[in-house]
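haha ok so turns out i had the wrong file open the whole time. this is the CORRECT one, sorry everyone. sequence first:
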Amino acid sequence: MIRFENVTAFYENDKPVLNGVSFTEEKGETIGLIGANGAGKTTLMRTLLGLLPHEGLITVDDIPVSEKTLPEIRRKLGFVLQNSDNQMFMPTVYEDMIFGPLNYGLDREEVDARVDDVLTQLNLTELKHCYNHKLSGGEKRMAAIATILVMKPEIILMDEPTSALDPKNRRLVINTINEMPETKLISSHDLDMIWDTCDRVILLNRGTIVADGSAKDILQNKELLEDNRMELPLRFSNP
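then structure:
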């Protein structure tokens, strides 16, 4: 469903921030993007969303990512931001959830049915009419996921979905990710979460893929991780 072929991406100063990136993600896969700060994880997602100029070929369902195709591409992608406050901009959870579908031209009855289905799926029905500024960090993160799921994307991008969460809410988000059937691309420094949610891992360093393989192989490779300014997941660290 996602294909990068020799992709190089740029910011305004024309300095490459991705360098010759190539990989394919099949339908239903969950891939973890890992790497130290500045490795290119968020940049890769922004490039997939058409937010950065690039060279090379990116396709989603065989549709090339270009200015002309962006509306169609973005209907297929849902992006859960690292900071939920940047995603939840309406007064209540319900108003945030209906904003996108209504702007895509769906009728109110269908949108309300979608909202109720997603809130039931996530066990969040009690939050439907809650004010966003009164939600806990974990509740807001789950509500942000709900605003994406109600759009029925085929692919979900998540940037640091467990950052700044307490253990209970972190586990709630992990369980939710594992129950979602959509294709998922998850960027995180939380390698234990990546182990719990992803079968495959792509390791980035300075905008280049240095490893692409099973989570089991990469996340237990101490030398590989340390060579790329990372450490083993806590579960594999010596006490």
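Residues 2-236 form a domain with the Rossmann fold fold (CATH 3.40.50.300).
again sry for the mixup
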